[in-house]
Amino acid sequence: MNASIDQLYVQLTGFLDQEQVTQNETVRDLHSKDESYHTPSLPDLVVYPRSTDEVSRIVKAAGSLNVPVIPFGVGSSLEGHVIPYDHGITIDFTEMNQIIEVNPSDMLVTVQPGVTRSVLNKELKKHGLFFSVDPGADATLGGMAATNASGTTSVKYGVMRDQVRDLEVVLADGTVIHTGNKAAKSSSGYHLNGLFVGSEGTLGCFTELTLRVFGIPEVTTAARATFTSITNAIEAVPAILQAGIPIARVELVDTESIRQVNAYSETDYAELPTLFLEFHGNEAGLAQDVAFTEEIVTDFGCKEILFETETASRNRLWEARHNAAYAYTHGFPGKQMMLTDVCVPISKLAEAVVFAREELDRTGLEGGIVGHVGDGNFHVLLMIDHENEEELKTADEYNETIVRRALACGGTCTGEHGVGVGKQKYQRDEHGEAYDVMLKIKHVLDPDNVLNPGKLIK
Amino acid sequence: MNASIDQLYVQLTGFLDQEQVTQNETVRDLHSKDESYHTPSLPDLVVYPRSTDEVSRIVKAAGSLNVPVIPFGVGSSLEGHVIPYDHGITIDFTEMNQIIEVNPSDMLVTVQPGVTRSVLNKELKKHGLFFSVDPGADATLGGMAATNASGTTSVKYGVMRDQVRDLEVVLADGTVIHTGNKAAKSSSGYHLNGLFVGSEGTLGCFTELTLRVFGIPEVTTAARATFTSITNAIEAVPAILQAGIPIARVELVDTESIRQVNAYSETDYAELPTLFLEFHGNEAGLAQDVAFTEEIVTDFGCKEILFETETASRNRLWEARHNAAYAYTHGFPGKQMMLTDVCVPISKLAEAVVFAREELDRTGLEGGIVGHVGDGNFHVLLMIDHENEEELKTADEYNETIVRRALACGGTCTGEHGVGVGKQKYQRDEHGEAYDVMLKIKHVLDPDNVLNPGKLIK
């Protein structure tokens, strides 16, 4: 440990309990990585604050010694967001995990950043409410706001940014601000909610979040629709959206991924390109939506559509979908996953996915494709041997090919995983001179580059 | 005209046609005001660019001479946003009024900033699509994005910020950036879309907008529900929302405003607190929504609910609602309107509106209340004699009383009209130290304070 860290340790233990600050090797190791393939790197200290005031004092102390600060939820990020490449301190928000208020009248909830979405949903259920963003992982809400997470339900309910009504944020100098308020809309001042959501810990640490929640729909129906061609499956989706059907989930799972799912989840789904669908609504409206969707998918060559109305079988279906990533990990022992994450205009999606599959076959890499196709967002799940430099290089190049094509058709290098360290090399190309605006904002709000340095922007 | 303006005139006419730059007194007068009660002030020049490149050169030329630049749509702003208090040049976007692309597959449209929403909707109708934001006035889309406009349909479809997928923006130094892309979602870089929408011309001039559009719903039904008490009318609204009814419009019109509407629009609506409602959906689902809403409003003491399913009668109903402001102007000849615009958490709305009415009665000012109550946003329409300093002072103080109460309960000083010059005095109180973050962003992006100086922030 260098002198600054020693000094910081003394300062921190001056106002925190001994057990809130640790240099323990195992704990540091747990905070050296996320769920991605990016190389781990150890923090010097891990700190567990219990209040906004403590976070403010921690950030201020670290800032005055020029020690990097990395906020950490459960470490489920996918582009190395929480890896302390410049070392410094990791602030673990595990102990700031209170649901502060559930407000059914305003359909709002206020939480500390360490609350996970499953804990929140369990509490909300008592009030007939639910929190809509579902990225698969049981991430913390602070982390989900930091990366602008989304997932399977965004096509109807929007992404994380759409749910954030207010953030309490500790800035680089320890100042505590609120980015919004509790009203449903506002045209007052610059929109700081939008700026801070997705800022990946580079502009501040979130210490409290006020989020929009929704009423649990009267009826929920899920379905699996199989197609003989992946192009047909994808092209059915804009037709469903244009018909004004308020589809709640529409997920593509390609043949290879269905195969992995069957092996892992002991399902016997037809091994064909499949759309997993979910409808939310009132009974009469949903019945009409379902019937109309059946007509549309039939027009697009759907081979079979099977409905799941029972909660248990519906849950099994979505569990199988969410377990697709684990299924691959299980199916390719010794290999690790690399995920692509582009999002393209939906009119370009079919050709982008077909291209991704063709390129994948060309490289000889193992993997499959799943996608939040209602948003034009898809992932190639690549199974690679990280010890094999050649394979890693091929996978990196493949990822780049997919990104370049997405950018060329008006899309983005990351639909939902964020930039972290993995997508930095595309930022200038994607944003052009707007990247300079981002750099200016970072520099003016964090002049000493203390907050999660080297992530998102540099 | 001072020397800088002379010099700028020479520079501008070097690359613009003579008729694109004017010092004409009448034209300048038309650009000296908006639809608000704020005191007019003349620009030195009015410029009519025809391309992004021209806007870039205009802004760059003005910036190099430290001459203020004020972007102007149709001048329907309500807080003095377009009034050139520091003089300088007004950029009128009238000639940049092309619909560049309608893209039904991606449910997107790309327009120049001078396109008005009625022109856009006329074109979209051919494709079975519509643009959802309806602030009443036939504003330009550039202006609507600049103020984060909303209105009657936001409860279902969201505000202007929710529709903006990409902006082309000319920055203070003439650089042209894009703030987003054409994908439905992105976690790449800082969210500049959100930051620039609602920036009121203080961070850049918008030269192109890519906006989300929606399919025209299968069925639309409107209704008028009358209540014996304004509190009951308002309290029915969160009950409707919590029931998960995807109501498309829910507007409060108080007794006084119904009286004005009847006099102006020759309607014979019952002179009682009224909710104007609209439902969008499929036939079966909407019927169920309507029946459920009837039950709910009945529970809240609704006296009568009348439905309008025919397009003509539905349009008449919304025309009457939208004409409420004109009705007042007509009903109080010689007086001018001042509008309050707070937005509060919906659970606080009933008491906020009752308070506003009581305070209004106490002051003796003439006026009434209308509101986008699904969002917790309401306006007091005050009719005042601007020559009467005492009355103007009373109205200002009244406006302040309403704002202070909104801020005290977690609301905002402006739900949709924006800050302009009228709501500046509340910015520090509303945003606290977050206001310093806004100031830093303004200063780093417009260091010489050339872009719409004195608006939103200063």
UniProtKB/TrEMBL annotation, chains A, B:
<dbReference type="Pfam" id="PF02913">
    <property type="entry name" value="FAD-oxidase_C"/>
</dbReference>
<dbReference type="InterPro" id="IPR016164">
    <property type="entry name" value="FAD-linked_Oxase-like_C"/>
</dbReference>
<keyword id="KW-0560">Oxidoreductase</keyword>
<dbReference type="Pfam" id="PF01565">
    <property type="entry name" value="FAD_binding_4"/>
</dbReference>
<dbReference type="InterPro" id="IPR004113">
    <property type="entry name" value="FAD-bd_oxidored_4_C"/>
</dbReference>
<comment type="similarity">
    <text>Belongs to the FAD-binding oxidoreductase/transferase type 4 family.</text>
</comment>
<keyword id="KW-0274">FAD</keyword>
<keyword id="KW-0285">Flavoprotein</keyword>
<dbReference type="InterPro" id="IPR036318">
    <property type="entry name" value="FAD-bd_PCMH-like_sf"/>
</dbReference>
<keyword id="KW-0809">Transit peptide</keyword>
<protein>
    <recommendedName>
        <fullName>D-lactate dehydrogenase (cytochrome)</fullName>
        <ecNumber>1.1.2.4</ecNumber>
    </recommendedName>
</protein>
<dbReference type="InterPro" id="IPR006094">
    <property type="entry name" value="Oxid_FAD_bind_N"/>
</dbReference>
<dbReference type="InterPro" id="IPR016169">
    <property type="entry name" value="FAD-bd_PCMH_sub2"/>
</dbReference>
<feature type="domain" description="FAD-binding PCMH-type">
    <location>
        <begin position="39"/>
        <end position="216"/>
    </location>
</feature>
<dbReference type="InterPro" id="IPR016171">
    <property type="entry name" value="Vanillyl_alc_oxidase_C-sub2"/>
</dbReference>
<dbReference type="InterPro" id="IPR016166">
    <property type="entry name" value="FAD-bd_PCMH"/>
</dbReference>
